[in-house]
Amino acid sequence: MSQEKQDKIVRLLSRALHRIRTTPPRIIASPATQPRRAAVAIVIRIVPSPTTPPPPADVPIPTLAQFFELDWVKDPAARPEILFLQRDGASSSHELKTSLSCEGSAHPTSRVEAHLAFPGGRMEEGDEGGLYTAMRQTWEEIGLDLAERDFTCIGQLDDREITTSLGKRLLMILSPFVFLQLTPRVLSTEPAEGTSIHWTPLETLVSAVLPETVGLVDSRGKWSSVTVDAASRLTPRHAAILKLLVRVLIGSMQFPAILLNLQDSDLLPSPPLPTSASYSALTQDVLEKGVVSDKVAPEKKKKSSSDHQLKLWGLSLGMTLDLMANMVPEPQHAQQTAGQHPPNLRLPFRPVGGEGMRIDTVAPSLASVFPRFSYPDVNFWIWVFGKRYREVVRGWEASIRDGGSNDRRLNWSGTTLNNFYAAVRKALVVVIVLRAVGVLCGLLFAGWWIFA
């Protein structure tokens, strides 16, 4: 059954990569007031089955179409994987990279939870473009050379806007690029200090967002949430008293996340491949840290699966959903004629004020960055002020139903985010004023009762 799942996932991956290769991305031009840009690399590989004979060393590098026709790729036991990084957010040198991965200044809520990101960072002077930036940053951060013949750049996903807390100011434009490793050999890496590599089976992600394609839901990939202190985003860093006051008044924010419970089998060495110098042993260090090693530390073998609990959320989750949205089959003509909703990712959440709308169809990645507040009245006021945001989403839906002829020229996602966060800001002002009025009235009543 597991091999059948892997075979389906390889076909889903083939569909997604061919779509990305043939579909032009939505490019967002940098405004004159904020020219900064950044880029990340989404790196995918397929680990061959241990029983598959290795290809000859002199075989030419295949094209994308030829790659998915190779015997070792079509083998039902082949396992597609995607590269994530776990960074030490305490390092000041990783300030930009932390903002790209964690959608702000949030920190893990427990020791065993780790936030994942893609390799990448800010475009520097002299970079020839976003693609060059993604490749340079990947080389500098983990020592993986995406310019080698082992890799091919499939294409680019839609640009994304990175803003400050609650969308008040644009920080930069982020461009995600998708890379595929075309060879079965394990490539050595050298992660920077404070950075570890996690090659995550694509099955754990597909089982969470496309469970009907792989049968039963894989317990290693399930939906969860990340709680972020709203005060850390709305107040100055060193204003402790103000932070406490805001925390009491508006509570916390919750973002959707995919919880990856990686089992020991995902981190321990795979069975040895057939004798070939081009195949390196998949040791613990290769799979967890990206470092080639001849042995596995005994103490790491004894770790339970609870020590490998990872969370994918924020921008990283949004870009992952952008990738996986290309796996969804095209709607059948009969479905379009009958007015049925097209196939879409299964997302167990809706943004505040978006109930009843198909935002998971038009932009699943967008829904991943919309917070839900812990206080119900805050969510209520967001709904009250969210009329314009809902109109934009419905216009986006209508554009897609009509064929999306103007979809690539309009920045629907940016407009939606701006209107949503405008509603959030208005809601927070109202909530804080009402709380202040309530406290003042309570104090006046208490004073009257005491002195009367």
Write the layout of secondary structure elements.
Elements: H1 2-22, E1 37-47, H2 64-67, H3 71-74, E2 79-87, H4 95-102, E3 114-117, E4 120-122, H5 130-142, E5 151-156, E6 160-163, E7 170-181, E8 195-201, H6 202-209, H7 211-214, E9 221-229, H8 231-234, H9 240-250, E10 252-261, H10 264-267, H11 284-289, H12 298-301, E11 309-313, H13 314-325, H14 333-338, H15 359-362, H16 364-367, E12 372-373, H17 376-385, H18 387-401, H19 412-451
Parallel strand pairs: 1-7, 3-11
Antiparallel strand pairs: 1-2, 1-4, 2-3, 2-8, 5-7, 6-7, 9-10, 10-11, 10-12
Helix pairs in contact: 17-19, 18-19
The rough form would be described as elongated
How many angstroms separate the termini? 77 Å
> Mean of the pLDDT scores?
77
| Largest pleated sheet | 12 strands, mixed
Radius of gyration: 24 Å
Structural class: alpha+beta
Overview of this structure, please?
The chain is α+β, with helices and mostly antiparallel strands and 452 residues long. 40% of the residues lie in helices and 18% in strands. The longest helix has 40 residues, at 412-451. It is elongated and about 95 Å long. The chain starts with a helix and ends with a helix.
Descriptive terms for the model:
452 residues, alpha+beta, 19 helices, elongated
Q: In a nutshell, what does this entry contain?
A:
The chain is α+β, with helices and mostly antiparallel strands and 452 residues long. It has helices at 2-22, 64-67, 71-74, 95-102, 130-142, 202-209, 211-214, 231-234, 240-250, 264-267, 284-289, 298-301, 314-325, 333-338, 359-362, 364-367, 376-385, 387-401, 412-451, and strands spanning 37-47, 79-87, 114-117, 120-122, 151-156, 160-163, 170-181, 195-201, 221-229, 252-261, 309-313, 372-373. Helix 17 (376-385) crosses helix 19 and helix 18 packs antiparallel against helix 19 (412-451).
